[in-house]
Design brief:
Layout (H helix, E strand, L loop, with lengths): L1 E6 L5 E6 L4 E4 L6 E2 L11 E5 L5 E5 L6 E3 L2 E2 L4 E2 L5 E4 L2 E5 L4 H7 E4 L12 E5 H10 L5 H18 L5 H16 L3 E8 L2 E8 L3 E4 H10 L1 E5 L12 H6 L3 E9 L2 E10 L8 H47 L10 E8 L7 E8 L3 E9 L3 H18 L6 H15 L6 E9 L4 E7 L5 E3 L5 E3 L18 E4 L5 E5 L1 H4 L11 H10 L5 H15 L9 E8 L1
Parallel strand pairs: 3-4, 12-16
Antiparallel strand pairs: 1-2, 1-11, 3-5, 5-6, 6-9, 7-8, 7-10, 10-11, 13-17, 14-15, 14-19, 17-18, 18-19, 20-29, 21-22, 22-23, 23-24, 24-27, 25-26, 25-28, 28-29
Length: about 550
C-alpha cells in the first residue's frame, strides 16, 4: 500500500492511503481531494491512478496551470516513484513519502550498556574540523588526501549544486557517498521532529549502534570501525554477525553548526577496508550535502512564504473593499474615515450608513487580536451589522441582538468592542450605544472637549447582556471623534502612549479644517510621536463635524 502526503501553503499536511482506485484532485467538490480555495488548481486538475501491482501513475487532466513532477512540467502520464513530489496549484503532493515507520523497518539501533565500549583500537573518530587540522598538523602531507580524492569531491559539488528536489537529492547524495568510499550499502537519515527518518537507502535491515548514532548526532564526530571482527565492542553481537558487516562508517550531516542527520555506510568484505582517508572524504562530502539540503529546505520555506504573502495581499484587497471607499455627503454633517492595519490584514472595522434626509449611522469596531483570525471575525461582524442596521429605531435592541449572535459564533478567547451611533444633521442629536469600546471624544466649538460616557461590556462574552441607549447633543462646529485604541495606545521609544488628551488637543488645533484634513493631521501626529516606527495595532478613525 502506498501513501500520498499533501502539503498545503499554511504548513499543514495530511496523508491519504492509496488503495486500488483512482484519486482525483481539483477545486471541484466532485474531486476526491478538494481544495476549493486554491485558485491555482483547475476544477479537475489531475488524477493518480493504479497501473497494476504496486505501481501508480500521475496524469494531468488538461489543467490550466499544468502539473509539475519534481519541478519539471509533466503533461504526459508518468509512473510515480518513491519520494516523487507533485506540484499542482499551491499544493505539494509527496508520493510514498518515507515516514518514521518506514525508517524503523529499514533499520534498528542496537542498545549498549556503556558508550565507552564503542571506542577501541579498531575504531577511528574524527570530525569536520579534524579533517582540516590533520592537514595543518602534517605540514601539507594531508594535501595528498585531497589530491587523491579530488575527483570525488568535484563530482559531489557538481551533482549537488543543481536544482534537484529533495527526494532526488538524497538519492544522489547516497549514491555518490557509496561510490566514493566503495561501500556495499548505505542509508541517509535526517532528524525530523526528534526522530531519525530514512530519506534514501541502498540495502535494508540496517543495525546501527545507538552509541554510534548518538555520538555522531550529539558531538558531530565521524566514526570509522575498520574491522568489526577484531572489535570487542561489536564482534559478539548476533545482529552484526547475521549481517556479515565487517567495516562501517557513520558521519554527520552538518550544516554550519547544526547537525540535521547522518550518513551510514558499511561493507561485508575486507578486500578493501575503509581507511582514515575514506572517513575524511565522506565527512567533507556529507558537509557539502548538508549545506545543499538546508539551502533546498530554505528555498521551499521561502516559496511558501511568498505564496502566503500573495494570498494575504489578496485577502487585504478583499477586506479593503468591505470598508467605505468614501464618506457620504449629507446636509449639515461633514464626515471622514480612515483605517490602517498594522499587518497585511486587520481586525478594525468602520462604516457609514446614511439615512434620508440628513441622518447618518456610524459604527467602529475592534476585534481582539491581530492578523488573519481577527480579520475573519471582523468580516463576520461587518456582515451581521449590515443586516441589522438598515434603519434602526432602537440602537439598544440592535446591539443586544448583535451581541447574542456574536456570542454564539465567537471563539471563547476572542471578543469585539463596538461603538454605534446615529447623528441627526438638522438637530445635532446624537444617539449611541457602546459595547466596551473606547469612549469617543466630543470636541466643542468653544475649545473644550469631553469623553462620551455610558455603555455596556464587549460583544461575544455573555449572550444575555441587555444594552442601553444614550444621547448627546452636538452644536454647530462640534466634532465627534470615534477611534480605536491603536491611536491612543501608540507608543513612543520611551514607552509612553499617545493617549486621549493628545488626540483631543490635535483635533482642537485643527477643528476649523475639513474632516479629511483633521484625519491626516492626527495620523501625522501619531507617526511623529512614535518616531515613524511600524504601528503595533490597527489604527482606525471616524471624524464627524456638525456644520
Amino acid at each position: 500500500m502506498k501513501d500520498l502526503q499533501i502539503l498545503s501553503p499554511d504548513g499543514n499536511s495530511r496523508v491519504i492511503q492509496l488503495i486500488d482506485r483512482s484519486i482525483t484532485l481539483g477545486r471541484s467538490s466532485n474531486a476526491d481531494i478538494c481544495f476549493p480555495d486554491d485558485n491555482g488548481l483547475s476544477r479537475q486538475h489531475l488524477v493518480i491512478e493504479p497501473k497494476g501491482g504496486d505501481t501508480w501513475q500521475l496524469r494531468d487532466l488538461g489543467s490550466k496551470n499544468g502539473t509539475k513532477l519534481n519541478g519539471v512540467s509533466c503533461p504526459a502520464p508518468t509512473v510515480l516513484r518513491q519520494g516523487d513530489r507533485v506540484m499542482a496549484g499551491h499544493l505539494v503532493l509527496v508520493f510514498d513519502s518515507t515516514s518514521t515507520k518506514a525508517a524503523k523497518a529499514l533499520m534498528l539501533f542496537d542498545p549498549v550498556e556503556d558508550e565507552s565500549e564503542e571506542t577501541s583500537s579498531s575504531t577511528v573518530v574524527t570530525s569536520l574540523k579534524g579533517v582540516f587540522r590533520r592537514d595543518e598538523a602534517t605540514g601539507g602531507a594531508g594535501s595528498r588526501f585531497f589530491s587523491d580524492q579530488v575527483a570525488a569531491l568535484v563530482q559531489a559539488g557538481n551533482e549537488l549544486s543543481g536544482d534537484r528536489p529533495l527526494p532526488e537529492l538524497f538519492r544522489y547524495m547516497l549514491d555518490l557517498s557509496i561510490k566514493a568510499v566503495k561501500a556495499d550499502r548505505g542509508i541517509v537519515l535526517t532528524v525530523e521532529d526528534g526522530d531519525l527518518v530514512a530519506r534514501a537507502n541502498r540495502g535494508e535491515g540496517f543495525r546501527i549502534s545507538s552509541a554510534v548514532r548518538d555520538r555522531v548526532l550529539n558531538s558531530g564526530e565521524s566514526i570509522l570501525v575498520r574491522d568489526m571482527a577484531r572489535d570487542d565492542a561489536f564482534r559478539s553481537r548476533h545482529s552484526i554477525v547475521e549481517q556479515q558487516v565487517r567495516t562501517l562508517m557513520a558521519v554527520p550531516l552538518q550544516a554550519h553548526d547544526r547537525i540535521i542527520g547522518l550518513i551510514y555506510v558499511d561493507s561485508p568484505s575486507l578486500l578493501r577496508e575503509f581507511t582514515k582517508d575514506d572517513l575524511d572524504l565522506l565527512t567533507v562530502m556529507a558537509n557539502v550535502a548538508a549545506i545543499r539540503i538546508e539551502n533546498a529546505r530554505l528555498a521551499e520555506i521561502e516559496q511558501s512564504r511568498k505564496l502566503m504573502a500573495r494570498e494575504l495581499e489578496q485577502a487585504a484587497e478583499i477586506q479593503r473593499r468591505f470598508l467605505p471607499g468614501a464618506a457620504p455627503k449629507l446636509q449639515g454633517i461633514e464626515l471622514a474615515g480612515h483605517n490602517a492595519a498594522c499587518r497585511t490584514v486587520g481586525g478594525d472595522y468602520y462604516d457609514f450608513f446614511p439615512y434620508p434626509p440628513s441622518r447618518v449611522g456610524m459604527v467602529l469596531g475592534d476585534v481582539s487580536g491581530k492578523g488573519m483570525p481577527a480579520s475573519l471575525l471582523m468580516m463576520g461582524l461587518q456582515a451581521r451589522v449590515q443586516v441589522l442596521i438598515e434603519e434602526p429605531s432602537d440602537l439598544a435592541a440592535v446591539m443586544t441582538r448583535l451581541n447574542r449572535i456574536t456570542a454564539a459564533n465567537c471563539p471563547s478567547n476572542r471578543f469585539i468592542s463596538l461603538f454605534f451611533c446615529v447623528l441627526e444633521g438638522e438637530t445635532g442629536e446624537l444617539t449611541y450605544c457602546n459595547a466596551g469600546h473606547n469612549p469617543p471624544i466630543l470636541v466643542r466649538a468653544d475649545g473644550t472637549w469631553e469623553e462620551i460616557q455610558g455603555g455596556g461590556p464587549v460583544l461575544g462574552i455573555l449572550g444575555s447582556i441587555q444594552y442601553k441607549e444614550f444621547k448627546q447633543q452636538l452644536g454647530p462646529g462640534d466634532i465627534l471623534v470615534i477611534y480605536s485604541d491603536g491611536v491612543t495606545e501608540a507608543p513612543n521609544a520611551a514607552g509612553d502612549e499617545f493617549d486621549v488628551p493628545r488626540l483631543a488637543e490635535m483635533v482642537l488645533k485643527h477643528r476649523s479644517a475639513p474632516c479629511a484634513d483633521i484625519v491626516k493631521a492626527v495620523n501625522a501626529a501619531v507617526d511623529e510621536f512614535t518616531g515613524g516606527a511600524p504601528p503595533s495595532d490597527d489604527i482606525t478613525l471616524i471624524i464627524a463635524k456638525r456644520v
